[in-house]
Amino acid sequence: MKCRKCDAKAIINMRQHKLALCKDHYPQWMLEQTQRFIEKYRMFSLQERVLVAVSGGKDSLSLWDILWQLGYQADGLYIGLGIDGGIGYSDESHHLAEKFAAGRGLRLRVVDVLETYGETIPEMAERTTRGKGRPCAVCGLTKRHVMNRVARDEGYDVLVTGHNLDDEAAVLFANTLNWAPGYLMRQGPVLEARQGMARKAKPLCRFYEREMVAYALVRGIEYIYDECPHALGSKTIYYKEILNKLESDRPGAKLSFYLSFLKAKEDGLFTRPQQGDGETGASGEALHTCPTCGQPTSAPGECAFCRLAIRIS
Amino acid sequence: MTTKLILRGKEYEVKSGTTVRHALEKIGVNSEAVLATRNGELLTDDEIVNEGDIIKLVAVISGGSGNPPTPSLPRRHYRKLVRLRRITPQTYQFPNFSPFPEGRGRGDGGDNQFSERHL
């Protein structure tokens, strides 16, 4: 198969776009497309300060690399979760994130959960039934809290994450299976800032996961290849496998699923009357401000993260 | 007349002279879930695999921050056992929910550092 642009040997064929590209044109196409999505969804401008949530994985490091090449003022945030899983998972991902930043002269902000809150994520997970025995729910809660805190406290205009289309389609699939209107309403390439919450954007939301891996390989980005030890058997991976089966039989199915959803949302399919003038949570409930951290919470008093932190202290 | 395919340390053999896509079908791996490489170079699905080729497959699926699977125990029994400390969330073995063969896009071992070994 030949590159659409230069007739050289193609390294990737994106069947959903009917587009094959070579090793020179593919990274260039990724940059152009990312820039297009940033502009299309009005994510951020060159003048704004961007905080990239970096995990050491292919998506976040590739995103940081793309933003750096496009000339955005992008700093990284690495959260040390203290996950070992017999493979030194967090140590290795931290090392790779540091190496990436040092190689490009970028600023990486590190928040170590153990140093900051006194326990690692697996230890925190033992204190709660949240997540029904797996640390993933506590991990997600902590990461969201820390990312938001750093973005807000250090004056970043936007927090960006490396969610790709497969991530978005899997979440959409799960929320559609459960008909979770609150979550469906909030899903999108940009989540606007609100009471105590930083603005969030997902510049990679239209790239397939395999495209992100291809980009990382072509650019020689060293990323943590092993999956988080706690991710084994996760629903997200299960949904991704189902969606890939669909994609294999019908190229473009995942992209169409996500884009049709965004269009339907734009057309008002998932609107709901606001309850009063205030902000509402995913289930339509009024939001309150956590007295400890100032972030929004669905019930009066401390937010879920601060309740967990209080238990540790 | 065979070609070797390697995915996360697991080796498979397929008849050579076929396309990457067909070779992946033969070993039950969805081509959307992996990228095929030969001598460090990415291959498109229509590429022919030759005799003696070593095709290294890079798994692309990741993501573990979603909701955990439901325990195989009824939820109220599970919670009760946790409360009574008969089981702990950390030691309870959750069922594997994948309907597909093992070793595709899973964190099922292998090296923890990206290198040529993964290609």
- How many strands of chain B? 5
Please state the structural category of chain B: alpha+beta
Please mark out the parts of chain B with pLDDT under 50 across 5 or more consecutive residues, or reply none. Answer: 65-74, 88-119
Widest sheet: strand ordering of chain A: 5-4-3-6-8-7
Give the count of helical stretches of chain A.
Answer: 12
* Percent of residues in β-strands of chain A: 5-15%
* Helix/strand class of chain A: alpha/beta
Which range does the strand content of chain B fall in?
15-25%
Indicate the radius of gyration of chain B in whole angstroms: 19 Å
Termini distance of chain A? 60 Å
Keywords:
heterodimer; A: 313 residues; alpha/beta; 6-stranded mixed sheet; two-stranded antiparallel ribbon; 10 strands; globular; B: 119 residues; alpha+beta; 5 strands; 22% strand; elongated; disordered C terminus
Describe the structure in your own words.
The complex is a heterodimer of chains A (about 325) and B (about 120). Chain A is α/β, with parallel strands linked by helices. Chain A has helices spanning about 25-40, 60-70, 90-105, 115, 120-125, 135-155, 165-175, 180-185, 210-220, 235-250, 255-265, 305-310, and strands at about 10-15, 20, 50-55, 75-80, 110, 160, 190, 200, 290, 295. In chain A, about 45% of the residues lie in helices and about 10% in strands. In chain A, strand 3, helix 2 (about 60-70) and strand 4 form a beta-alpha-beta unit. The longest helix of chain A is centred in the middle third of the chain and has 18 residues, at about 135-155. In chain B, about 15% of the residues lie in helices and about 20% in strands. The longest helix of chain B has 9 residues, at about 75-85. Chain B starts with a strand and ends in a 36-residue tail after the last helix. Mean pLDDT of chain B is about 70; it is low at about 65-75 and about 90-119. Chains A and B meet through helix 3, helix 5, helix 6, helix 7 and helix 9 of A and strand 3, strand 4 and helix 2 of B.
